[in-house]
Design brief:
heterodimer, A: mainly beta, four-stranded antiparallel sheet, 0% helix, 54% strand, B: mainly beta, six-stranded mixed sheet, 10 strands, 50% strand
Chain lengths: 112, 114
């Protein structure tokens, strides 16, 4: 099976802009989770989608949003970008929930 | 490659030795724990998990120990190899892995000397 893929791998945006990141889970996986990774805060949970519904949400402002499509592919959107949003954004998929999540390589977002 | 963290605790071991990576978790109600390995430029990779009704679980060359009394988790890697060099994260969940948040530790960098 192909692994989790994320596009784009690298992105540079300016403060105030918005950005959309994409994640394609492993075939058959219905749960997709998103994480933000920074040197200062480490790995932090953003949200999880299952069957097109947001099932869980971390402690991030409303500027961070996501969605999942019927084919389980997921997108996350960050509006009104801030310098502090610069991070590696990771997507992980699993069949049902957190058990044996498989991570993608991440999208490196730089906000200038 | 991607930098996964600055100023991480570092464990340096000789090839062939055993490694022990420790993690203190925060929530006494957490009942599911996972260890991940992250190599430079890659996403975290699942290593092994354990539920709170167990205190030890073994995989291939890895063992996870759970001490709920002191909220401590450890990962033991037997016969450490250069390919084991990576950052290791522990994560906890308060809902047995189903729903709820996964909370990650800050990570430990393992460096294996040949």
């Amino acid at each position: 099976k192909a692994g989790v893929t994320q596009t784009p791998r690298y992105l540079i945006k300016t403060r105030g802009q918005q950005v959309t990141l994409s994640c394609s889970p492993i075939s058959g996986h219905r749960s997709v989770s998103w994480y933000q990774q920074t040197p200062g805060q480490g790995l932090q949970f953003l949200f999880e989608y299952f069957s097109e519904t947001q099932r869980n949400k971390g402690n991030f402002p409303g500027r961070f949003s996501g969605r999942q499509f019927s084919n389980s592919r997921s997108e996350m959107n960050v509006s009104t970008l801030e310098l502090g949003d610069s991070a590696l954004y990771l997507c992980a998929s699993s069949e049902w929930d957190f058990y044996e999540q498989y991570f993608g390589p991440g999208t490196r977002l730089t906000v200038t | 490659g991607e930098s996964v963290g600055l100023h991480l605790p570092t464990l340096s071991v000789q090839e062939g030795d055993n490694s022990i990576i420790n993690c203190a978790y925060s929530n006494s109600a957490s009942d599911y724990f996972i260890w991940y390995k992250q190599e430079s430029g890659k996403g975290p990779q699942f290593i092994i998990d354990i539920r709170s009704n167990m205190d030890k679980r073994q995989g291939q060359r890895v063992t996870v120990l759970l001490n709920k009394t002191v909220k401590h988790l450890s990962l033991q890697i037997a016969a450490t190899q250069p390919g084991d060099s990576a950052v290791y994260f522990c994560a906890e969940s308060g809902y047995g892995g189903s729903q709820g948040n996964l909370i990650f530790g800050k990570g430990t960098k393992l460096s294996v000397k040949p």
